[in-house]
TrEMBL record:
It comes from the Bacteria. GO terms for molecular function: metal ion binding. This is Putative heavy metal transport/detoxification protein. Residues 1-65 form the HMA domain.
Length: 92
């Protein structure tokens, strides 16, 4: 079923490129909407795979907006997102 999720720390095409490439093998094609805040990703996903997606996004520095992070996790995910973004800019 196609579902849309709000994702934090997605700033640019580099971030979107990283999301599309890193999630492709496990989750298939990902659409990234950079025209809204918070940013949105849309993909065809089963409900039982959402927790895996949530953990994968967080490990890349792009937690779902619905996830409440403590201060340390918030800082950590922002730092990871900068690295993921830079990787996405160079890995086209």
């Amino acid at each position: 079923m196609k579902q849309t999720f709000e994702v934090e720390n997605v700033k640019c095409d580099g971030c979107a490129n990283t999301l599309r490439k890193k999630l492709l093998n496990d989750f298939g094609e990902i659409e990234v909407n950079l025209s809204v805040l918070p940013r949105q990703i849309t993909l065809d996903i089963k409900d039982e795979d959402i927790d895996k997606l949530k953990e994968t996004l967080k490990s890349m520095g792009y937690p779902m907006s619905s996830e409440k992070l403590d201060t340390i996790d918030n800082i950590t995910t922002k730092a990871k997102s900068f690295i993921s973004c830079a990787t996405g800019k160079f890995d086209k």
